[in-house]
Amino acid sequence: MRYRRDMAGLNVRFTEEELDALRERAEAEGRSMQSFAHDAVLRAINEHSRLFNEAADHVLKVSEELNRRLA
Questions:
Q1: What is the pTM of this model?
Q2: DSSP symbols for the chain
Q3: Burial code of 1-40, b = ≥16 C-beta within 10 A, e = fewer?
Q4: How many CA atoms lie within 13 A of 60 on its CB side?
Q5: Fewest CB atoms within 10 Å of the CB: 7, 31, 37, 45?
Q6: What's the superkingdom here (predicted)?
């Protein structure tokens, strides 16, 4: 369950072309522009976290042998 302290807002500026593209994509999915943009931001946040975690795992695996020898 999601709890909200308040309904915080965020104003984001788009060019007319960007707004048109956003409107078209949202309409194609049968969604509001706000809902579409909200979900896109959350997907971007989650993707960034996933990429960071993958990179951290890679560094740990690559440096595992070196760390063992230095210990």
A1: 0.61
A2: ----SS---------HHHHHHHHHHHHHTT--HHHHHHHHHHHHHHHHHHHHHHHHHHHHHHHHHHHHHH-
A3: eeeeeeeeeeeeeeeeeeeeebeeebeeeeeeeeebbeee
A4: 6
A5: 7
A6: Bacteria
